[in-house]
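Q: I have 364 residues here and want to know how they pack in 3D. Can you give me a structure?
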Amino acid sequence: MIKHIKCIAFVSLLALFSFSATSQTKNYLEFNPQIAITAFTPDYQLTGPVYGAELTYHEGISQNAAQWKKMLHLKSLGFSFNYHDLSGVKIVGDEGANKFGSSFAALAGFNVSLLRVGRLELLVSPAFGLSFQTRTFFTDGNLVIGSHLNFASRIGLRAQQELGTNTRLLTTIQVLHSSNGGFRVPNNGINLLNVGIGIAHDLKTSPNYGLFDRTSFKTHSFEFAIGVGRRGRYHHQENFYRSTLYGGYSYRLNPLVAFSLGVDAVYYYTIYNPNDHARTYQSYATSNSRWRVGATTGPDIWMGKLALSVKFGYYLYYNSLREVKVYESVGLRYQAFQHFSLFSKVFLHGTEADFASVGVAYTL
């Protein structure tokens, strides 16, 4: 997941320097049948066919759109629902019948035009949301998926060829990822490399350019946040709980991009007990003390009232069982009121999810 979120943030920053392509001024529907070239996950080799489809409602970009949409050179905003039949997927060496079931996902994202030649156009399409897996470790012995509800992210390329005034033929390739951020373990997650051929057709409705939009922001601000989080215990339905604190400074470069510098503090309700290793061990997140503290910095990509955050941290204090110096966090934040925001965040050590948290932030 972390790689997908970084990629989405990178695409957002890269779009600042891309050419200003013509926006899609009409809303439209897209249907895209898909087949997975491969399914893959860390630690295990997967085999078997995967079939699915994706239905997307695209909202075009109005000429009166907010500044952040113009800065990203958006072609459209997309709201997708996809389905994949995973019943044929098997783990090499553990080839029991149908341990994966089906996957459903709801995602929100955007399309940025990379290149246009005549009636042919190439776009990049990042998105993120939630997925539901019908079979897990705790229901069917699925060794890579620990929970029904998971975070989902997608990055894709699409070529679209105009067939007429209102219809386009699509060819797509995408990577779709689902995992739960350590909310329940095991949490290897599953990745699908999908290809598809679909069709898009314009609707008669006009874009709602007010969606999520915000017209004002402060260049300099201080932020304080408090949250609660949970990590699953390996192969058990018991949980480890944490509380989080954050304080920092944010510099808003423009309506789209901000950079922040701050301090994270995490409080452990369960610390490591060498006499009870199986019940208190938490991989790279195993702590011998109640608190850990780190300095963190990174960009926030503001899309109106919604922000995508990618942070990189260095521990100032962490009495860890394993040698750990750095961490990362990715998350979403929604500005519900002028000074208050709601957020969801996942902490990570390398590619391993630590825990997922939710909370509220105050901006001064």
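Q: Anything worth noting?
A: The longest strand covers residues 287-303. The radius of gyration is 21 Å.
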